Amino acid sequence: MNLEIEYVISRFPAIARQPLKIAETAPGLSGARVWKISISSTGGALSLHRPDGVTLDLKREQPLSIETVDDFAKVNVSPKVQPALQTKPRQSGNFCLRRWPTEHPTEAQLDWIHRVLIGCTRELGGVLPLPLPTREGTTRLRHNGHLWELTPWLPGEPVAPAAIGESQLSDLMLVLARFHHLAARHENKFGRSPNLLTRLEQLQAIAQNLGTRGHFGSRVFPFSKALPTDRYTMQYTENLNAMSKLFQQHGATLIERLQLSPIASRNIEQKPGLNPIAPTELKWQWPDKLLLTPIIRDLRIDHVFFQGDHVSGLIDFGAMKIDHRSFDLARLLGSCFDIYADLNGDGMELARWQHAMAIYNSMTELPPLSATEQWLAIWADQVAVVLGSWNWLDWLQGNQIEFANKQLVALRVDFHRRRLDNLINAATL
To answer: How many Cβ atoms are within 10 Å of 307's Cβ, its own excluded?
Structure first.
C-alpha cells in the first residue's frame, strides 16, 4: 500500500516534490477510501498515518521535476488540462486523495462529474471539491483497478440535524439553489425522471419479493441466530430484526400506496404542506415533462460542511447524474427533518421542511418548484425510507457485504429503523 500511495502522489503535480503528511480517514460506507494530505512549508519526511495510529515513513527515489497548479479556479478540463496553467509550486495546504471503488463511477462518468464541478467552481468559490490535474492533464488516474482523484481538502465540519440554525439552513438552500442553476448551464433537458422510474421498478421488485416469500421472516434468522461480538453489531442486529418485522406486517400495504399515490392517511391529508397534491390517476401522478439537470443525488446533511453560519463545503459527488432537483431536496431534507415523527405532535419537523422549501424557491434562478415537484420530493423521501431499510436488510443478511466501520453502520441502520417505524405509523393513522 505504501508504494501504491507513493506512485499515485507522484502523478499529481499539486503534491509531488513536497514534504507531506498523509492520514487515512475513517472508512465510510460507499467503498471509497480517503486520505488527507497536508503539505508543510517547513519540510520534513513523507509519512503515512494509519487510522490505528501507526506512522509509516515513505521514502522517495529521485524527486520529480513537476510544478504544481497554483490557480485552481482556472483549470478547464474536458478532460485535459492545459500545461500552460502550471505555475509556481504550492508550499502549503491540505488536499483530499480519494480512491473510488472498482464498481463506480466509470471513467466517463467521473470525467463528466469533474466537468460539471469545474464549470460551477468560478461562481461557487471554494465550496466545491475542484478536481486537480495529473501529470497527463486528466483529472483522474487509473491505477490497480481503481480511479483516483485529488481535490482541495474543504474546510469546516458537518452539523447535527438538530443543531442546524436558521442562518445555516438559509445559506444551505442558497448554495444548493445556486449549484443547481450553474449545473443546469452545463446540461439540461425536459423529460421523465430516470430516478422516479428506477424507484418504481425497485418498489415493484420488493413487492414481488414479499409476495413470493409470503413473509419476510427468513431474513430475521441470520441476525437472531448470530452471536454479536461488539456493541455496534448488537445494536444494528436489534434494529434489523425490528425492520424485518415492520416489513412483515406493513410492507406490502406501504409499497402499494407508494406505487399509486402519496401516503393518504387522514392525518396527513389535514396537513397540505406534507401532501401538496393528492393525484388519483397514475398517468397524471407521474409528471413526464420535468426539467432535468445535474443533481448530486447523495446530498445528506453529513456531506455538508459549515464554518459558522455559512456553508464551506459540499462533498461526495460520485453519484451525480442528470435528474430532477426534487431528489436532491428529498435526500437533504430527509436527513435533517423526520416529518413523519411529529404528525401527532407540534409539527415542527414538517414546518422546517416547508420553510426550507420556501427558502429554496425564493432563491433559485431556475423556475421555482411547483406543487407537483414539491410533492415529488416528499414521495422521494418516503420511497428512500423504504428502499434504504430494505437495502440494509439485504446487505447485512448473512454478512453479504462487509463494512469496516461498524459504528457508522449501526448509526445508519438506527436512522432507517426509526424513520421506517414513523412512516408506517403515519400511514396507518
So the answer is: 12
For residue 145, count other CB atoms closer than 10 A to its CB. 7
Instruction: Give me the pLDDT at residue 15, please.
Output: 84
Rounded CA separation 1/237 (Å): 33
CB 327 within 8 A of CB 293: no
Q: If you count them, how many residues does the chain have?
A: 429
Q: How confident is the model at residue 355 (pLDDT cuts 50, 70, 90)?
A: very high
d(CA 350, CA 348): 5
Residue 93 · residue 152 · CB < 8 Å = yes
- Cell numbers placing 262: 402519496
Q: Is 299 exposed, middle or buried (0-12, 13-18, 19+ CB in 10 A)?
A: buried
How far is the C-alpha of 259 from the C-alpha of 266, rounded, in Å?
Answer: 19
pLDDT digits (tens, 9 = 90+) for 148-158: 999 999 999 99
Retrieve residue 423's grid coordinates. 412512516
Q: What is the pLDDT of residue 396?
A: 82
Euclidean distance between the first and the last CA atom of the chain, given in angstroms as a whole number: 55
Q: What is the DSSP string of 260-291?
A: HSS---HHHHT-TTTSS----SHHHHS-S-EE
**Contacts with 297 (C-beta within 8 Å, 6 or more apart), sequence order:** 195, 319, 320, 321, 323, 327, 328, 331
pLDDT single digits (tens) 201-231: 898 888 888 765 444 444 443 444 455 567 8
Which grid coordinates belong to 206?
A: 420488493
pTM of the full structure: 0.81
**What is the SS3 assignment for 93?**
strand
> Residues 289-348: pLDDT tens digits?
899 999 999 999 999 999 999 999 999 999 999 999 999 999 999 999 998 887 656 678
In whole angstroms, give the CA distance from residue 236 to residue 405. Answer: 12
Distance CA 306, CA 337 (A): 18
The whole-number pLDDT of residue 110 equals 97
Q: How far apart are CA 6 and CA 346, in angstroms?
A: 56
As a whole number of angstroms, the distance between CA 304 and CA 157 comes to: 8
CB contact set of 193 (below 8 Å; sequence gap of 6+): 287, 290, 292, 323, 324, 327, 376
What distance in Å separates the CA atoms of residue 375 and residue 269, rounded to the nearest whole number? 13
Which residues lie across from 311 on neighbouring strands?
A: 306
Nearest to 424 by CA among 261, 249, 274: 249
